[in-house]
Amino acid sequence: AQSVAQPEDQVNVAEGNPLTVKCTYSVSGNPYLFWYVQYPNRGLQFLLKYITGDNLVKGSYGFEAEFNKSQTSFHLKKPSALVSDSALYFCAVRDMRRSQGNLIFGKGTKLSVKP
Amino acid sequence: DGGITQSPKYLFRKEGQNVTLSCEQNLNHDAMYWYRQDPGQGLRLIYYSQIVNDFQKGDIAEGYSVSREKKESFPLTVTSAQKNPTAFYLCASSIDRPISGNTIYFGEGSWLTVV
Hints:
heterodimer; A: mainly beta; 6-stranded mixed β-sheet; 4-stranded antiparallel β-sheet; B: mainly beta; 7-stranded mixed β-sheet
């Protein structure tokens, strides 16, 4: 079955410290992986994606993610967290069941960055 | 500005009433989607459309209907058959079907509450 898991409901980080939001996936074939961020009462904003190529993907607002095929993971990282990074983060994987390739989303991880 | 516009932002539905959520995009995207977001459950696909006059059911289509008469517009009707419609609804689009890794972009969402 195609799935994506975000094992942490919430991640707490002090401002200026590095942050990691975890994501693992289960798909058949090559995975297409995405990260989105959602601020309260807003839509989802695209951060970055992995399609092929370098395992380290750089995205918006200083975020990056590392694709690890052996561990089936795609963790989101940032070297130095900002209070404004506090939001809900979603990992998603392309759904291989459908020819149009819809996305399957994790349940989200709430990131809280304290000053 | 190019983007995806959803309206209204807040909508209240009485028991037994049908309501329609509007979604318009000026990105010239072929594919459009409707997702439902409930707290702690991530996003679930209601309907998607790859092209004008064509649409397909997603994972939770029961109690919902859509139309795609124009490329720019993909309205969602929440019918009285949807027993638990209170949720945050997100419209999205992509330049083409994301099977090749195309990014899905989201609108700002609409809150629907049953009163």
